[in-house]
Amino acid sequence: MSNQVLSVGSLSASSGEKKFGVNKIALQDQTYSLPMWLIHGARPGPTLVVTGGVHAAEYASIAAALDLGRSLAPDKLRGRVLVVPILNVPGFSARSIYICPLDGKNLNRVFPGNSGGTASEQVAHWVFQNVLKQADYYVDLHGGDLIEALIPFTIYFRSGNEKVDQASLDMARVFGIHYLVRGETPGSAYASAAQAGIPSILAEAGGQGIWPAEEVTRHTDGLNRLMRHLKMIEGPEPKSVPCTLLDQFLWLRSDQDGFWYPSVAVGEAVKKGQGLGSVKDYEGKVLQSAASPADGRVLFLVSSLAINKGDPLMAVGA
Q1: Domains in the chain and their CATH numbers?
Q2: pTM for this prediction
Q3: Contact 315/251 with Cβ under 8 angstroms?
């Protein structure tokens, strides 16, 4: 619980204030501009950090973070909210899939970062030290990337700290999305925050380069539910939503360059060993057959015909 001035880099907001601005991060060979809102409630309460756009073409999540930053009023807020709507700003301008174009790295695989590393590692380090470490609770908004379809789901990380993990699971349940996944993706922002003792979740909705109103609303409703649960805004305790908890988040990747032909749909229930699709060459020869590693459900699916060696094909929640 804090009522201290909220400061991030060159920006600050006192109690009852809301500030929008751009922090300039000095990298080794250039300056990185990072827009954000600092919303400091008129009454004391917890600090919530919300980020979007670590994957810069996951537009429903970015639109939701923008909506939150634009709409949240400090006179209606207990505590402090820090909103960074796009972490991968160069990737957003470039309409980049997965990576930051400054160094070709996936920003969500290099947290907590490295002050002496590549551009993405330096940005991750600055964000972790200056933004995420201020959080009492952290939500990282995501969705299907430009070439990914998905069903909505929420992920929390098993840090090994029972208290933090339970708080993260509680956040995921309150967010209101049916599928919950225990994730263990190293280098991701939410996982690094959880390992640092901050209850954290990653929420997924939307995809394929579009931002339907219902998917943006899924994110904003989840944030509203969470803030009500944390007593940061007025409103009743959110009603419980039936949840299915998935213990495993099983990714399948391509080991060939070629053409991707999925044989299942996103959201479909699958059985262990079931064929899920194939990667073919120009003449139609099967280069790789993808089979389900477990009984489960297809959480996301790459919808691009083009596929490169090392690219994800889909993920099964089991």
Answers
A1: 6-245 (3.40.630.10), 249-317 (2.40.50.100)
A2: 0.96
A3: yes
